Amino acid sequence: MKAEQNELITRVGPGTPCGALLRSYWQPAALVDEFDPALDPRMAQRPVKAVRLMGQELVLFKDGNGVWGLLDRDCPHRGADLSFGRREADGLRCPFHGWKFAADGRCLETPAEPAGSRLCERVRQRSYPVLEKCGVIFAWMGPEGAVPPPFPGFDCFIAPASHTFAFKGLWNANWLQAFEVGIDPAHPSFLHRFLRDEALEDIGQNAAGKQFRSASAGAIDGEQWPMTRIMREFAQPEISFEPRPHGLQLTALRPMTEQLTHVRVTHAIFPATFVIPLSETMTITQMHVPVDDTHTYWYSFFTSFAGPLDKEAMRAQRQQFISLPDYIPHAGRHNRWGFNPEEQLTQTYLGMGEEDINVHDQWAVESMGAIQDRTREHLGTSDKIIMANRRLLLQAIETVQAGGVAPGVADASLAGAMAGPDTVDGIAPAGSWPTWWRAQAQAKRDGAPWLAPAEGRAAAGTVPAGA
Ligand code: FES
Ligand SMILES: [Fe+2]
């Protein structure tokens, strides 16, 4: 890849072509948890936060009436920082000269001006549409005055609060390499390899922290296998992808015997979200939002298709590795991501612990450097998905530059065609894996108490043209 092309697909600040593309999509701006006084005591006094998104400085707040506002942070009077503002019932007031702004950006008062001044009417702070979904506050930062696309109706967003849990973490690297690690179906066989397996009975309720430790669906000679064993023993997946309205459906096949093949179906939701199975009844949807060109927040949505989730336990589990209120991982370049060469010899392929596989991905993402130099890489057959996604990205940048509509969830005309998407990790009859995995996905949907039977059927039964 040429250096200019690498710049084009990684830089996302205001005015950049890729930035314009990413601003076509709803982006996570903060967890609702970040405004919970139980988790951040400062929020009891003042639910106001400085937020940096795609290189822009913003202030996110909830006014006294409970309305969320997301505004540019520099006061339109003389530029002071509104994240230090006084929060009032109907807006946020700049402490420098008392100008007050409503959540929608209207200037409500300029108290130092003479009585009868109409200056307020000529001033408006840029505000961005926000909505709260599934424990996350989403923002839309597209062109001023344009209408945001409908919010996508994926499982993770339609499941009730009892069946979803959202968390996030900061990575010190560019958004695209974060996403490219997530959609790479070859890496779990290596990066996340455990040199020995844990008994499946010991996983149980702990599945959220034990990605790949859970059993793959199906059985081999009547025995269930943990995903990690399959990944380890069958390390050359046959990777393929099919276009979907939301992006790409990814399939990794690992033929195990004449009769059995392991099938893992995941999704790349353009431009920066993946959906993967965590266990037979849970999925992870992970979004990657640029803070700026060299920092990225991942947002993970856990969705249960069975019982309700114990959010307290899940949060506590994640908090062992990531510190609030800024969601900074304890491991990083500063401590070599906890690398232990002894462990690398005896326990894990990587040597960065068994408890938190997120740190494995973090190392892969961050160790490439703040922005991966793609002029130096050598892609192989197993990088098929990475290449396909880059083609989509380049095409989409071009489309938006030419004034067209960004693809996938930014395209309102496709909203009705998007649901699910279904994932699986299982051992299937080799000859009939396509129908086998569909049936598995259907059974999972049928078991979800929050999906009406008709909805469940509609989503799983949707096989787009060409499939
Ligand atoms: S700079 Fe904000 S009111 Fe003057
Ligand atoms: Fe990974």
Commentary on this structure:
The protein is α+β, with helices and mostly antiparallel strands. It contains 13 helices and 20 strands. Strands 11, 12, 13, 14, 15, 16, 17 and 20 form an 8-stranded antiparallel beta sheet that branches. A hairpin with a 2-residue loop joins strand 16 and strand 17 (295-304). The longest helix is centred in the C-terminal third of the chain and has 18 residues, at 384-401. It is globular, with a radius of gyration of 23 Å. The model is unreliable at 457-467 (pLDDT under 50). FE2/S2 (inorganic) cluster is lined by residues 75, 77-78, 80, 94, 96-97, 99.
What is this entry, summarized?
This protein is an alpha+beta fold and 467 residues long. Helix content is 23%, strand content 24%. Mean pLDDT is 93; it is low at 457-467.
Rg: 23 Å
Instruction: Enumerate the distinct ligands.
Output: FE2/S2 (inorganic) cluster, fe (ii) ion
Major pleated sheet:
8 strands, antiparallel
Helix content: 10-25%
Low-confidence stretches: 457-467
Average pLDDT metric: 93
Strand content: 15-25%
Question: Roughly how many Å apart are the termini?
Answer: 31 Å
So how many helices?
13
Number of strands: 20
Principal-axes shape call: globular
Structural class of the secondary elements? alpha+beta
